[in-house]
Amino acid sequence: MNKIKNEESVGSKSADKAADKPAKTLGRKRDHTRDAKILEATIDVLAEAGFDGMTMDMVAARAKAGKATMYRRWSSKTELVRDALTWMNRNHLELDLLPDTGTLRGDLLALLKPQSIEEGERKLRVLTGLGSFFSQNPEAVNGGIFEPWAVVNRELMHRAVGRGEISTHADIEMACQVITSMASYRGLVQRKTFDKQFYTSLIDVVLLPALKNPLTSPNEME
């Protein structure tokens, strides 16, 4: 009888020890700190070689990352470039903490981070060197790269409606599309940087007059 109790006691202790041990995980956890380094390396390579001249090997070498690591995160060059462009756009904007200056104009302008001439020129080289990327991925402009910016713009505009600054009939979706379309046109067609001076003109001449004094309600046009 004692023998049985002893065996039960030993078995119970073994089970307790096993429960105390952390479960083994398969494979390594993803190191998200590496993502930013790889995305920045992608932007550097795009600025130098363009989309058509860029290879995953070039990015891996610049980021000092293994190709296997890269392909586990991005299955193709197109996916990597799409995420890198989104990352570049986010870095140019203050998206994590919404500004609250008291006016829509001030809020929209506060989103743009100051950037050096070198940063502006690098971004311009990236955009003008995209080559076949947009022809292969036309949805990337509004569907991904600029969407974080559009989400914030919508929130700022809806907030302006709430405080009575702009019309309740304002076509906010159209205004957001104008901003992203002009940002794309400025870089891809005009080959100029989307700087604060240009953005200020866009806000004062186009956006605010349209939002404050819409000719018709968007619903009346359907």
Shape: elongated
- What is the terminal-to-terminal distance? 86 Å
Helix content: 55-70%
- Tally the beta strands: 0
Q: CATH homologous superfamily of the largest domain, by name?
A: Tetracycline Repressor, domain 2
Kindly provide the radius of gyration, computed on alpha-carbon positions and rounded to a whole number of angstroms.
Answer: 26 Å
Q: Roughly what fraction of the amino acids lie in strands?
A: under 5%
| Mean pLDDT figure | 80
Structure, described:
This protein has 2 domains: 31-76, Orthogonal Bundle (Arc Repressor Mutant, subunit A), CATH 1.10.10.60; 92-214, Orthogonal Bundle (Tetracycline Repressor, domain 2). Residues 12-28 have low confidence and may be disordered. The relative contact order is 0.09. It has 12 helices and no strands. By secondary structure, it is mostly helical. The termini are far apart. The radius of gyration is 26 Å and the shape is elongated.
Walk me through the topology.
Elements: H1 2-20, H2 32-53, H3 56-63, H4 67-73, H5 77-91, H6 104-110, H7 117-128, H8 133-136, H9 140-145, H10 147-162, H11 172-188, H12 196-212
Helix pairs in contact: 2-3, 2-5, 2-7, 6-12, 10-11, 11-12
